[in-house]
């Protein structure tokens, strides 16, 4: 039974919550109020359209590659007895906590080396190229995607896989018939969140490919360039687009999670 007493501690917590809501809501409100008025005059702008298309294209490609790498990695971390598992997990978590500009610096050094020059000679340039945007987004989001999928795999009852194994199902068959169906909603939700994060990635991208108008200009890069030239209306229009896309992604992700929880409750009943 919930305690209906409204004591001093609860009052302080509510007050702090209102401060947080006001602070966060205020920052979002500024983008909405100023962005709505700036949006109509800049959505038809060639540069804004280019930045929007490049952001969405690179986010889609990097998110797909992110999942193609994250799913098998998460499977190994949760289902295979490997040496140095703790070290590997610490390494992945460390890259999650590093500033993105540091990851971008590492990528810049890597792809400026003879290895990167060899890739360029083979027709796959990275530094100051759109390919670098995809790799920067991949480097930033891959550890996060692995963590989300590891959590999804750990939420599955291992007894089901054990029984299937005793009945002769191979690891691949157990993965396809048990893990994937049970984690489907988590996968979709995670993919949406990864895509949204890729859409707004800037630090690593700035370090690896820079921001060149109509060449390596994503929406965050467009905001940066507009602010640097004192074009606040253009920056607010791009910020508003990012806000709307992020909001849609979050709503879809939360919707999928709620539907999945309702199904679980219904099955338990």
Strand tally is: 0
User: What percentage of the residues does DSSP assign to strands (E)?
Assistant: under 5%
**Overall pLDDT metric:** 87
Report the uncertain regions.
Answer: none
Give me the secondary-structure category. Answer: mainly alpha
Reconstruct the topology from this structure:
Elements (H helix, E strand, L loop, with lengths): L7 H35 L3 H34 L5 H13 L2 H12 L2 H8 L8 H25 L3 H9 L4 H29 L3 H7 L9 H10 L3 H37 L1
Helix pairs in contact: 1-11, 2-6, 2-8, 2-10, 3-6, 4-6, 4-9, 6-8, 6-9, 7-8, 8-11, 10-11
Explain this structure.
- The protein is an all-alpha fold and 269 residues long.
- Helices cover 81% and strands 0% of the residues.
- The chain is built from eleven helices and no strands.
- The protein has helices at residues 8-42, 46-79, 85-97, 100-111, 114-121, 130-154, 158-166, 171-199, 203-209, 219-228, 232-268.
- Helix 4 (100-111) packs parallel to helix 9.
- The longest helix is centred in the C-terminal third of the chain and has 37 residues, at 232-268.
- The chain is globular and about 65 Å long.
- It starts with 7 loop residues before the first helix and ends with a helix.
- The relative contact order is 0.14.
- The mean pLDDT is 87.
Quick structural gist:
Helix content is 81%, strand content 0%.
Name a few traits of the molecule.
single chain; 269 residues; mainly alpha; 11 helices; globular
């Amino acid at each position: 039974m919930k305690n209906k007493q409204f004591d001093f501690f609860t009052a302080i917590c509510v007050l702090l919550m209102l401060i947080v809501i006001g602070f966060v809501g205020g920052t979002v409100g500024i983008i909405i109020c100023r962005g709505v008025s700036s949006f109509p005059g800049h959505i038809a702008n060639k540069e804004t359209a280019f930045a929007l298309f490049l952001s969405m294209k690179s986010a889609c490609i990097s998110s797909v590659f992110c999942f193609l790498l994250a799913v098998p990695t998460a499977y190994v971390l949760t289902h295979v007895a490997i040496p140095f598992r703790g070290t590997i997990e610490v390494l992945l978590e460390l890259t999650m906590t590093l500033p993105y500009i540091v990851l971008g610096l590492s990528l810049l050094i890597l792809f400026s080396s003879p290895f990167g020059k060899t890739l360029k000679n083979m027709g796959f340039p990275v530094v100051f190229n759109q390919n670098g945007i995809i790799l920067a987004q991949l480097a930033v989001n891959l550890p996060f995607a692995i963590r989300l999928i590891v959590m999804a795999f750990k939420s599955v009852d291992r007894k089901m896989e054990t029984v299937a194994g005793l009945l002769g199902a191979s690891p691949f068959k157990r993965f396809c018939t048990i893990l994937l169906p049970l984690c489907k909603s988590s996968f979709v939700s995670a993919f949406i969140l990864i895509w949204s994060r890729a859409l707004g990635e800037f630090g690593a991208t700035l370090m690896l490919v820079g921001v060149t108008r109509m060449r390596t200009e994503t929406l965050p890069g467009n905001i940066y360039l507009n602010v640097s030239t004192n074009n606040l209306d253009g920056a607010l229009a791009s910020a508003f687009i990012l806000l709307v896309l992020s909001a849609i992604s979050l709503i879809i992700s939360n919707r999928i999670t709620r539907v999945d929880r309702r199904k679980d409750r219904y099955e338990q009943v």
